[in-house]
Design a protein that fits this description.
The protein is an all-alpha fold and about 350 residues long. The chain is built from 14 helices and two strands, in the order ααααααααααααααββ. The protein folds into two domains: about 200 residues, Serine Threonine Protein Phosphatase 5, Tetratricopeptide repeat; about 60 residues, no CATH class. It is about 65% helix and about 0% strand. The radius of gyration is 38 Å and the shape is elongated.
Protein backbone atom coordinates (compact mmCIF):
# COMPACT_ATOMS: atom_id res chain seq x y z
CA UNK A 1 0.00 0.00 0.00
CA UNK A 2 1.42 3.37 -0.96
CA UNK A 3 1.80 6.35 1.31
CA UNK A 4 -0.81 8.33 -0.63
CA UNK A 5 -3.32 5.53 -0.30
CA UNK A 6 -2.74 5.33 3.41
CA UNK A 7 -3.17 9.08 3.80
CA UNK A 8 -6.53 9.03 1.95
CA UNK A 9 -7.77 6.11 4.03
CA UNK A 10 -6.75 7.85 7.25
CA UNK A 11 -8.51 11.11 6.22
CA UNK A 12 -11.69 9.21 5.43
CA UNK A 13 -11.56 7.45 8.77
CA UNK A 14 -10.98 10.71 10.64
CA UNK A 15 -13.96 12.31 8.86
CA UNK A 16 -16.18 9.35 9.69
CA UNK A 17 -15.23 9.44 13.35
CA UNK A 18 -16.04 13.19 13.59
CA UNK A 19 -19.71 12.72 12.66
CA UNK A 20 -22.42 12.15 15.27
CA UNK A 21 -24.33 8.93 14.60
CA UNK A 22 -27.96 9.62 13.51
CA UNK A 23 -27.36 13.36 12.88
CA UNK A 24 -27.02 14.56 9.32
CA UNK A 25 -23.88 16.37 8.41
CA UNK A 26 -24.28 20.15 8.26
CA UNK A 27 -22.18 22.22 5.99
CA UNK A 28 -22.07 26.00 5.80
CA UNK A 29 -24.22 27.32 2.94
CA UNK A 30 -23.30 30.15 0.63
CA UNK A 31 -25.31 32.72 2.73
CA UNK A 32 -24.50 31.41 6.19
CA UNK A 33 -22.99 33.81 8.74
CA UNK A 34 -20.25 32.76 11.04
CA UNK A 35 -21.67 31.48 14.31
CA UNK A 36 -25.28 31.43 12.91
CA UNK A 37 -26.86 29.19 15.58
CA UNK A 38 -25.35 31.29 18.39
CA UNK A 39 -26.70 34.52 16.85
CA UNK A 40 -30.22 33.02 16.55
CA UNK A 41 -30.08 31.91 20.16
CA UNK A 42 -29.04 35.37 21.32
CA UNK A 43 -31.89 36.90 19.25
CA UNK A 44 -34.45 34.62 20.87
CA UNK A 45 -33.17 35.51 24.32
CA UNK A 46 -33.37 39.22 23.50
CA UNK A 47 -36.96 38.87 22.25
CA UNK A 48 -37.92 37.00 25.40
CA UNK A 49 -36.37 39.69 27.58
CA UNK A 50 -38.17 42.49 25.70
CA UNK A 51 -41.57 40.83 25.97
CA UNK A 52 -40.95 39.97 29.61
CA UNK A 53 -40.14 43.60 30.32
CA UNK A 54 -43.30 44.71 28.52
CA UNK A 55 -45.38 42.23 30.51
CA UNK A 56 -43.89 43.42 33.79
CA UNK A 57 -44.53 47.03 32.72
CA UNK A 58 -48.17 46.33 31.92
CA UNK A 59 -48.68 44.51 35.19
CA UNK A 60 -47.03 47.37 37.09
CA UNK A 61 -49.20 49.90 35.27
CA UNK A 62 -52.31 47.86 36.10
CA UNK A 63 -51.35 47.76 39.77
CA UNK A 64 -50.73 51.52 39.81
CA UNK A 65 -54.03 52.13 38.06
CA UNK A 66 -55.89 50.00 40.58
CA UNK A 67 -54.20 51.82 43.46
CA UNK A 68 -55.05 55.15 41.83
CA UNK A 69 -58.65 53.98 41.39
CA UNK A 70 -58.85 52.89 45.00
CA UNK A 71 -57.50 56.27 46.09
CA UNK A 72 -60.16 58.01 43.98
CA UNK A 73 -62.86 55.93 45.61
CA UNK A 74 -61.71 56.88 49.07
CA UNK A 75 -59.99 60.22 49.32
CA UNK A 76 -59.96 62.26 46.11
CA UNK A 77 -62.11 65.33 45.59
CA UNK A 78 -63.91 66.03 42.33
CA UNK A 79 -61.04 68.33 41.32
CA UNK A 80 -58.54 65.48 41.86
CA UNK A 81 -60.62 63.14 39.72
CA UNK A 82 -60.57 65.71 36.91
CA UNK A 83 -56.76 65.92 36.87
CA UNK A 84 -57.06 64.25 33.45
CA UNK A 85 -59.90 65.96 31.61
CA UNK A 86 -59.80 64.17 28.25
CA UNK A 87 -62.26 61.22 28.14
CA UNK A 88 -60.45 59.64 25.18
CA UNK A 89 -57.03 59.87 26.81
CA UNK A 90 -58.35 58.47 30.07
CA UNK A 91 -60.01 55.57 28.24
CA UNK A 92 -56.69 54.70 26.54
CA UNK A 93 -54.89 54.89 29.87
CA UNK A 94 -57.42 52.64 31.60
CA UNK A 95 -55.77 49.47 30.21
CA UNK A 96 -59.11 47.72 29.90
CA UNK A 97 -60.40 48.88 33.28
CA UNK A 98 -62.65 51.53 31.71
CA UNK A 99 -65.79 50.00 33.24
CA UNK A 100 -64.24 50.15 36.71
CA UNK A 101 -63.13 53.74 36.19
CA UNK A 102 -66.60 54.66 34.92
CA UNK A 103 -68.09 53.40 38.21
CA UNK A 104 -65.56 55.49 40.14
CA UNK A 105 -66.35 58.62 38.17
CA UNK A 106 -70.10 58.03 38.49
CA UNK A 107 -69.67 57.73 42.26
CA UNK A 108 -67.88 61.07 42.20
CA UNK A 109 -70.73 62.61 40.17
CA UNK A 110 -73.29 61.60 42.81
CA UNK A 111 -71.07 62.75 45.68
CA UNK A 112 -70.28 66.07 44.00
CA UNK A 113 -73.91 66.78 43.15
CA UNK A 114 -75.18 65.78 46.59
CA UNK A 115 -72.48 67.72 48.41
CA UNK A 116 -73.07 70.86 46.35
CA UNK A 117 -76.82 70.68 46.85
CA UNK A 118 -76.52 70.11 50.60
CA UNK A 119 -74.29 73.16 50.87
CA UNK A 120 -77.03 75.32 49.36
CA UNK A 121 -76.53 74.73 45.66
CA UNK A 122 -74.17 76.49 43.34
CA UNK A 123 -72.92 76.53 39.79
CA UNK A 124 -72.10 72.80 39.66
CA UNK A 125 -69.14 73.64 37.41
CA UNK A 126 -67.63 70.14 37.51
CA UNK A 127 -70.88 68.28 36.88
CA UNK A 128 -70.73 68.24 33.08
CA UNK A 129 -67.04 67.24 32.72
CA UNK A 130 -67.51 64.46 35.29
CA UNK A 131 -70.56 63.13 33.42
CA UNK A 132 -68.82 63.39 30.06
CA UNK A 133 -65.88 61.31 31.28
CA UNK A 134 -68.17 58.78 32.98
CA UNK A 135 -70.29 58.10 29.89
CA UNK A 136 -67.31 57.98 27.52
CA UNK A 137 -65.61 55.41 29.74
CA UNK A 138 -68.81 53.33 29.78
CA UNK A 139 -71.33 54.39 27.09
CA UNK A 140 -73.80 51.77 28.37
CA UNK A 141 -74.10 53.12 31.92
CA UNK A 142 -77.80 54.00 31.62
CA UNK A 143 -78.07 55.31 35.18
CA UNK A 144 -75.55 58.04 34.39
CA UNK A 145 -77.72 59.36 31.56
CA UNK A 146 -80.98 59.26 33.50
CA UNK A 147 -79.72 60.82 36.72
CA UNK A 148 -77.12 63.00 35.02
CA UNK A 149 -79.74 64.61 32.79
CA UNK A 150 -81.86 65.39 35.86
CA UNK A 151 -78.88 66.91 37.68
CA UNK A 152 -77.96 69.05 34.68
CA UNK A 153 -81.41 70.24 33.65
CA UNK A 154 -82.89 71.11 37.06
CA UNK A 155 -82.90 74.81 37.85
CA UNK A 156 -80.62 76.13 40.63
CA UNK A 157 -80.26 75.57 43.49
CA UNK A 158 -81.46 72.02 42.88
CA UNK A 159 -79.41 71.55 39.73
CA UNK A 160 -77.03 73.11 37.25
CA UNK A 161 -79.68 74.76 35.08
CA UNK A 162 -78.00 73.44 31.91
CA UNK A 163 -80.77 71.82 29.85
CA UNK A 164 -78.75 71.93 26.62
CA UNK A 165 -75.98 69.92 28.26
CA UNK A 166 -78.62 67.50 29.52
CA UNK A 167 -79.92 67.12 25.96
CA UNK A 168 -76.38 66.53 24.70
CA UNK A 169 -75.83 63.87 27.36
CA UNK A 170 -79.05 61.98 26.60
CA UNK A 171 -78.53 62.17 22.84
CA UNK A 172 -75.12 60.54 23.36
CA UNK A 173 -76.81 57.88 25.45
CA UNK A 174 -79.37 57.23 22.72
CA UNK A 175 -76.61 57.00 20.12
CA UNK A 176 -74.96 54.21 22.11
CA UNK A 177 -78.14 52.54 23.46
CA UNK A 178 -80.75 52.66 20.72
CA UNK A 179 -82.90 50.02 22.44
CA UNK A 180 -83.47 52.07 25.61
CA UNK A 181 -86.86 53.77 25.21
CA UNK A 182 -86.55 55.48 28.60
CA UNK A 183 -83.76 57.67 27.22
CA UNK A 184 -86.16 59.03 24.60
CA UNK A 185 -88.64 59.67 27.39
CA UNK A 186 -85.99 61.56 29.36
CA UNK A 187 -85.10 63.59 26.27
CA UNK A 188 -88.74 64.49 25.62
CA UNK A 189 -89.16 65.47 29.25
CA UNK A 190 -86.23 67.89 29.10
CA UNK A 191 -87.65 69.54 25.98
CA UNK A 192 -91.02 69.78 27.71
CA UNK A 193 -89.44 71.49 30.72
CA UNK A 194 -87.89 74.17 28.49
CA UNK A 195 -91.21 74.49 26.61
CA UNK A 196 -89.86 73.23 23.29
CA UNK A 197 -92.97 71.16 22.62
CA UNK A 198 -92.14 70.33 18.99
CA UNK A 199 -88.84 68.71 19.97
CA UNK A 200 -90.55 67.00 22.91
CA UNK A 201 -93.12 65.52 20.54
CA UNK A 202 -90.35 64.31 18.23
CA UNK A 203 -88.43 62.66 21.10
CA UNK A 204 -91.54 60.85 22.38
CA UNK A 205 -92.41 59.68 18.85
CA UNK A 206 -88.88 58.36 18.29
CA UNK A 207 -89.06 56.52 21.57
CA UNK A 208 -92.45 55.00 20.75
CA UNK A 209 -90.85 53.24 17.78
CA UNK A 210 -88.32 51.38 19.93
CA UNK A 211 -89.25 47.69 20.40
CA UNK A 212 -91.12 47.08 23.69
CA UNK A 213 -91.49 50.82 24.35
CA UNK A 214 -94.21 51.84 26.79
CA UNK A 215 -97.47 52.79 25.00
CA UNK A 216 -97.77 56.11 26.85
CA UNK A 217 -94.98 57.57 24.70
CA UNK A 218 -97.43 57.94 21.80
CA UNK A 219 -99.96 59.54 24.14
CA UNK A 220 -97.34 61.99 25.38
CA UNK A 221 -96.37 62.84 21.82
CA UNK A 222 -100.00 63.65 21.06
CA UNK A 223 -100.27 65.78 24.20
CA UNK A 224 -97.21 67.77 23.15
CA UNK A 225 -98.81 68.42 19.78
CA UNK A 226 -102.14 69.53 21.28
CA UNK A 227 -101.75 71.02 24.75
CA UNK A 228 -98.08 71.32 25.54
CA UNK A 229 -98.22 73.75 28.46
CA UNK A 230 -101.13 72.49 30.57
CA UNK A 231 -100.87 71.32 34.17
CA UNK A 232 -102.63 68.11 33.17
CA UNK A 233 -99.81 67.32 30.72
CA UNK A 234 -97.23 67.89 33.44
CA UNK A 235 -99.21 65.63 35.76
CA UNK A 236 -99.28 62.92 33.10
CA UNK A 237 -95.51 63.13 32.61
CA UNK A 238 -94.67 62.99 36.30
CA UNK A 239 -97.22 60.24 36.93
CA UNK A 240 -95.61 58.18 34.17
CA UNK A 241 -92.21 58.77 35.75
CA UNK A 242 -93.47 57.80 39.21
CA UNK A 243 -95.08 54.59 37.96
CA UNK A 244 -92.24 53.34 35.77
CA UNK A 245 -88.97 54.31 37.42
CA UNK A 246 -87.23 51.62 39.49
CA UNK A 247 -85.20 54.22 41.37
CA UNK A 248 -86.41 55.51 44.73
CA UNK A 249 -84.80 58.96 44.37
CA UNK A 250 -86.46 59.61 41.02
CA UNK A 251 -89.78 58.33 42.39
CA UNK A 252 -89.50 60.69 45.37
CA UNK A 253 -88.76 63.60 43.03
CA UNK A 254 -91.77 62.69 40.88
CA UNK A 255 -93.97 62.62 44.00
CA UNK A 256 -92.72 66.09 44.97
CA UNK A 257 -93.58 67.36 41.49
CA UNK A 258 -97.06 65.82 41.63
CA UNK A 259 -97.78 67.40 45.03
CA UNK A 260 -96.55 70.77 43.78
CA UNK A 261 -98.72 70.50 40.67
CA UNK A 262 -101.81 69.78 42.74
CA UNK A 263 -101.07 72.79 44.94
CA UNK A 264 -100.58 74.93 41.80
CA UNK A 265 -103.99 73.85 40.58
CA UNK A 266 -105.62 74.55 43.96
CA UNK A 267 -104.09 78.01 44.19
CA UNK A 268 -105.29 78.95 40.69
CA UNK A 269 -108.88 78.00 41.54
CA UNK A 270 -108.79 79.60 44.99
CA UNK A 271 -107.39 82.81 43.54
CA UNK A 272 -110.34 83.00 41.17
CA UNK A 273 -112.70 82.64 44.14
CA UNK A 274 -110.88 85.33 46.15
CA UNK A 275 -110.91 87.74 43.21
CA UNK A 276 -114.65 87.14 42.82
CA UNK A 277 -115.18 87.81 46.55
CA UNK A 278 -113.26 91.09 46.35
CA UNK A 279 -115.26 92.14 43.31
CA UNK A 280 -118.56 91.44 45.11
CA UNK A 281 -117.71 92.85 48.54
CA UNK A 282 -114.99 95.39 47.91
CA UNK A 283 -112.69 93.90 50.53
CA UNK A 284 -110.19 91.07 50.97
CA UNK A 285 -111.55 87.99 52.78
CA UNK A 286 -109.88 87.21 56.10
CA UNK A 287 -109.84 83.47 55.39
CA UNK A 288 -111.26 80.83 53.07
CA UNK A 289 -114.23 80.20 55.33
CA UNK A 290 -115.73 83.51 54.19
CA UNK A 291 -115.60 82.22 50.63
CA UNK A 292 -117.42 79.11 51.76
CA UNK A 293 -120.20 81.18 53.38
CA UNK A 294 -120.72 83.13 50.17
CA UNK A 295 -121.02 79.94 48.18
CA UNK A 296 -117.79 80.54 46.26
CA UNK A 297 -116.39 77.27 47.62
CA UNK A 298 -118.07 73.95 48.32
CA UNK A 299 -115.37 73.02 50.86
CA UNK A 300 -112.23 74.52 52.36
CA UNK A 301 -109.34 72.66 50.72
CA UNK A 302 -106.01 71.72 52.29
CA UNK A 303 -102.74 71.53 50.41
CA UNK A 304 -101.30 68.08 49.48
CA UNK A 305 -99.46 67.94 52.81
CA UNK A 306 -102.60 68.70 54.84
CA UNK A 307 -101.85 72.37 55.56
CA UNK A 308 -104.42 75.16 55.03
CA UNK A 309 -104.02 77.73 52.29
CA UNK A 310 -103.71 81.35 53.44
CA UNK A 311 -104.79 84.73 52.08
CA UNK A 312 -102.28 87.57 52.33
CA UNK A 313 -103.33 91.13 53.08
CA UNK A 314 -103.32 92.04 49.42
CA UNK A 315 -105.61 89.16 48.52
CA UNK A 316 -102.99 86.73 47.24
CA UNK A 317 -103.56 83.02 47.97
CA UNK A 318 -100.41 81.33 49.26
CA UNK A 319 -99.36 78.00 50.75
CA UNK A 320 -98.45 77.60 54.41
CA UNK A 321 -95.08 75.88 53.86
CA UNK A 322 -93.44 76.58 50.52
CA UNK A 323 -90.28 74.68 51.49
CA UNK A 324 -92.29 71.45 51.65
CA UNK A 325 -93.39 71.94 48.03
CA UNK A 326 -90.04 72.51 46.25
CA UNK A 327 -91.43 72.64 42.71
CA UNK A 328 -94.33 74.98 43.39
CA UNK A 329 -95.00 77.65 40.76
CA UNK A 330 -98.15 79.27 42.19
CA UNK A 331 -98.96 80.45 45.71
CA UNK A 332 -95.46 81.36 46.86
CA UNK A 333 -95.58 83.79 49.82
CA UNK A 334 -94.49 87.37 49.13
CA UNK A 335 -90.76 87.76 49.59
CA UNK A 336 -90.15 84.00 49.45
CA UNK A 337 -87.05 82.83 47.56
CA UNK A 338 -86.48 79.22 46.51
CA UNK A 339 -82.79 79.62 47.26
CA UNK A 340 -83.51 80.19 50.93
Amino acid sequence: MTNSTMSGTQATANSATSRVPGKPETRPGPFSKPGGPKVASRSRRLTTLVFSALLVGCLSASILLLRFTDRLRTFASAEDVLYITSPKLLKRMSLGYDGLLADVYWTRVVQYYGGTRRSGGGRYELLWPLLEITTHLDPNLITAYEFGATFLSANPPGGAGLPQRAIQLVEYGIENNTDQWRLYYDLGFIYYEIKDYRQAEDAFLRGSQVPNAHPFLRILAARMAEHGGEIETARMLWSATYETTPDKNIRDSAADHLRSLRADEDVIELQKAVDSYIEQTGRVPRNLTELLRMGLLTAVPLDPLGHPYKIEAGGKVVVSDAHALPFLQQGLPSGYSKSE
